[in-house]
TrEMBL record:
Source lineage: Bacteria, Bacillati, Bacillota, Bacilli, Bacillales
Pfam families, per database record: Epimerase
Entry protein name: NAD-dependent epimerase/dehydratase domain-containing protein
Source taxon at top rank: Bacteria
Residue ranges constituting the NAD-dependent epimerase/dehydratase domain according to the UniProt record: 23-131
Length: 220
């Protein structure tokens, strides 16, 4: 980030920065707005907050956009990708986290449209922005959608925190998943009121359509 800031200053350019929800730490059970205190309790969350501070201290023209977990074409490191990819190959799959807990997942094209709209507005710079997904959804609802759309009948294994801990003994990426597993138990849900008031309508895509398009893209 220091290098990015250096180049931005040198060429007098603005920065539009895609960020996640890690810096917020734990949610409060409600939709959180941009003024919600950032109190990260994880290594990843603390790093994200440090990156934001570097940009703020630089006094360059920039803004941060906080997004929920992505899913959709190109989102290959997301929780739903690990679930949907085997389904696209008609193989058994895993669902990470409690199937009953409702979370947000934002469709990649929706996130792209939102950040482009912000980048084109002078009002966006010097601010933080929260972009929520279409709605919250549970794992059970996602599984029901997939089955109704594809007639999928293979086994679905629910991966809990204990299983992640065991996998983490052998896999570095799984150790990182364990650190962020709280998001499957205490989801952070974003409030997009500021964007709607200043920029306009938030781009949204139904989960039914987004999941179907994602599955089609994974088969290509």
């Amino acid at each position: 980030m220091h290098n990015i800031v250096f180049i931005a200053k040198k060429h007098a350019v603005r920065l539009a920065i895609v960020d996640n929800i890690y810096a917020y730490g734990r949610g409060n059970g409600k939709s959180i707005s941009e003024d919600y205190p950032k109190n990260p309790h994880t290594k990843k969350g603390k790093i994200r907050l440090q990156l934001e501070q570097i940009v703020q201290d630089s006094n360059i023209d920039a803004f941060f956009v906080h997004f929920p977990d992505f899913y959709g074409p190109g989102a290959e490191k997301s929780m739903l990708h690990f679930f949907l990819k085997p389904i696209s190959q008609n193989k058994s799959t895993i669902f990470i986290g409690d199937r009953k807990v409702k979370r947000e997942y934002i469709y990649t094209p929706d996130g792209a449209k939102a950040i482009v709209n912000l980048a084109l507005s002078d009002k966006a710079y010097g601010e933080n922005w929260n972009i929520p997904a279409t709605d919250t959804i549970s794992g059970e609802e996602i599984i029901d959608m997939v089955k109704s759309q594809t007639n999928y009948k293979k086994r679905i294994i629910t991966v809990n925190k204990r299983m992640i801990s065991l996998l983490g003994l052998f896999d570095k990426e799984m150790r990182e998943v364990k650190e962020m597993f709280y998001l499957n138990e205490e989801p952070v849900v974003l409030d997009g009121g500021k964007y709607q008031e200043i920029i306009g309508e938030i781009p949204t895509t139904s989960y039914e359509y987004g999941i179907l398009k994602t599955l089609k893209s994974l088969k290509q």
